[in-house]
């Protein structure tokens, strides 16, 4: 048998427990194949358990183990890093818990925080260096770990109750009941120093940050808000958000917009 | 070949011991880390490694290169590893004589190879590719084996000997894995030790194993067993003072226990040296 055929049989044994594939590798291989199957599934289960401690706490041992086993059956790993294997678990949870959207949203938040934890290093801009900025032509460069997640439930509150603040010890307060938010929102996730952070944003602020992330300048945002809210209210809103973003540490740099 | 200044005794750096390594002076000559855990863009893992590197030489030990993969090596993987190598300037870079990937599937387990001419050709090609991409010699480790293939036409040590000759790679000899594979597959571990090319062995691993249903399992969750210590003594007698480290990946004890275990390696090597004098 060619090496390619051996490896294909091994893959089919591990991912489908194919009896035909095992038989092709020889009867004497059976005890060894059992060891590898156990290691394969155990490794993936450990990966998901480590990556989703909060989801685990929310679902409980039995339900989490069942969901993880379903995911392992459904999605064979394809990347050299186990970090990538954990990324698709929210999709499986979304299918398994379609009537409980907080489960997948909790998983998405946990995954985003993990991604931010190992994302590129970048210091936030020091507000004291921004004295002479022409804000009408300013382009805000966000830190590379910044991302936005859709939120329709109180998953963020559940996460905080179960895990505490990002980077802190596990929370000890009872989590709230799952519930839908009054209006769809977004979660901003990023990292300050070595600690991932998140904040729930109303739709308008999330839209503003998405514009900034897309390279639009701050003057464009002010004009948009002035058209919606009026000059004074729009300017106050934009200024308030800018102060919050600087305080949060989501802005890495402020550049002058060089477009005409 | 080991020079008088080569670091001699090390431990695997694992999370429960980060604080020990960052805040105290740990009496080891080097540490070894799992490369993939640090092949990330940034954040605390890279910072921990940078700070540990300020205190100790670091060996990078990989588990996902897939040297036996028929599809060749993943260029993105090699690029990430090269970035880490350039930053850390490691003492050694190693991975296993196994395959982990095929046709878009990545097993995250060290899967076995037949010791065939075809496999030798594929592994040789991949080792050469890795060494070219990394700009340095790769050490190849013997994994624990739980089965054999009808396609094998040579022993594992003959396979490794030829691989070294063809590619110039070195060997990371895992003494526990020799013991486990010998027990599972029915060969004499002393034949293995006698068959590896001594000048190519640059590093030794020691670890514990467990008794499984029908196989010994390389679990890294126990202290090194007495028969493995005895085999280590034989290895040092044949190979000389090769840099040696202990791996523990589960049921990780306080650092002091691992340091005491490492002292056993020091004592055995000292005894061998004394007997030879």
Topology:
The complex is a heterodimer of chains A (260) and B (277).
Chain A: H1 3-16, H2 19-24, H3 30-51, H4 53-59, H5 61-74, H6 82-87, H7 89-96, H8 101-117, E1 138-142, E2 147-153, H9 155-163, E3 180-192, E4 195-201, H10 203-213, H11 218-229, H12 231-248, E5 251-256
Chain B: E1 9-12, H1 18-23, E2 30-34, H2 44-55, E3 58-61, H3 75-88, E4 93-96, E5 99-102, E6 105-111, H4 117-134, E7 139-141, H5 156-167, E8 170-174, H6 175-185, H7 189-195, E9 201-206, E10 210-211, E11 216-217, H8 226-239, E12 244-246, H9 255-276
Parallel strand pairs in B: 1-2, 1-12, 2-3, 3-4, 4-7, 7-8, 8-9, 9-12
Antiparallel strand pairs in B: 5-6, 10-11
Percent helix of chain B: 40-55%
> What's the shape of chain B?
globular
Count up the domains of chain A: 2
Subunit organisation of the chains: heterodimer
- Biggest sheet overview of chain A: 3 strands, antiparallel
Q: Helix count of chain B, per DSSP?
A: 9
Largest sheet of chain B: 8 strands, parallel, barrel
The averaged pLDDT of chain B comes out at 95
Total helical segments of chain A? 12
């Amino acid at each position: 048998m060619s090496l390619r055929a051996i490896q294909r049989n091994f893959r089919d044994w591990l991912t489908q427990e194919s009896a035909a594939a095992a038989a092709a590798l020889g009867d004497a291989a059976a005890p060894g194949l059992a060891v590898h199957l156990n290691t394969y599934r155990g490794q993936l289960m450990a990966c998901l358990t480590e990556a989703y401690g909060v989801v685990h706490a929310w679902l409980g041992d039995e339900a989490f183990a069942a969901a993880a086993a379903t995911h392992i059956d459904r999605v064979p790993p394809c990347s050299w890093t186990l970090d990538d294997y954990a990324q698709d678990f929210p999709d499986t949870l979304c299918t398994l818990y379609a009537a409980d959207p907080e489960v997948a949203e909790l998983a998405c938040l946990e995954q985003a925080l993990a991604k931010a934890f190992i994302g590129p290093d970048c210091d936030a801009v020091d507000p004291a260096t921004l004295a002479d900025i022409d804000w009408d032509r300013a382009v805000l460069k966000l830190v590379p770990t910044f991302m936005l997640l859709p939120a329709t439930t109180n998953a963020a509150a559940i996460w905080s109750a179960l895990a505490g603040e990002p980077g802190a010890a596990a929370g000890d307060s009872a989590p709230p009941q799952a519930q839908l938010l009054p209006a769809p929102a977004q979660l901003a996730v990023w990292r300050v120093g070595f600690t991932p952070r998140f904040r729930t944003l109303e739709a308008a602020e999330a839209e503003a940050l998405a514009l900034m992330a897309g390279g639009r300048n701050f003057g464009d945002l002010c004009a948009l808000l002035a058209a919606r809210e009026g000059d004074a209210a729009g300017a106050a809103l934009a200024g308030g958000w800018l102060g919050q973003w600087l305080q949060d540490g989501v802005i890495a740099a402020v550049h002058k917009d060089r477009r005409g | 070949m080991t020079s008088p200044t080569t670091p001699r005794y090390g431990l695997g750096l694992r999370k429960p011991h980060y604080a020990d390594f960052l805040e105290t002076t740990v009496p080891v000559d080097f540490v070894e880390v799992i490369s993939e855990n640090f092949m990330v863009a940034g954040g605390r893992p890279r910072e921990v490694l940078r700070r540990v590197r300020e205190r100790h030489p670091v060996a990078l030990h990989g588990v996902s290169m897939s040297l036996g993969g028929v599809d060749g090596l993943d260029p993105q993987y090699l690029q990430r590893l090269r970035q880490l190598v350039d930053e850390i300037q490691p003492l050694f870079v190693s991975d296993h004589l196994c395959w982990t990937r095929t046709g878009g599937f990545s097993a995250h387990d060290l899967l076995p190879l037949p010791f065939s001419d075809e496999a030798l050709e594929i592994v040789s090609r991949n080792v050469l590719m890795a060494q070219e991409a990394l700009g340095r010699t790769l050490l190849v480790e013997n994994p624990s084996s739980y089965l054999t293939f009808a396609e094998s036409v040579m022993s594992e040590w003959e396979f490794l000997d030829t691989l070294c000759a063809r590619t110039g790679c070195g060997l990371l000899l895992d003494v526990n894995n020799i013991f486990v594979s010998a027990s599972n597959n029915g060969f004499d571990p002393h034949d293995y030790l006698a068959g590896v090319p001594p000048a190519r062995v640059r590093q030794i691993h020691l670890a514990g194993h467990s008794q499984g249903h029908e196989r010994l399992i390389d679990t890294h969750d126990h202290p090194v067993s007495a028969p493995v210590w005895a085999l280590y003594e034989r290895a040092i007698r044949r190979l000389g003072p090769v840099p040696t480290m202990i791996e523990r990946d589960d049921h990780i004890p306080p650092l002091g226990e691992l340091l005491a275990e490492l002292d056993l390696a020091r004592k055995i090597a000292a005894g061998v040296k004394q007997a030879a004098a």
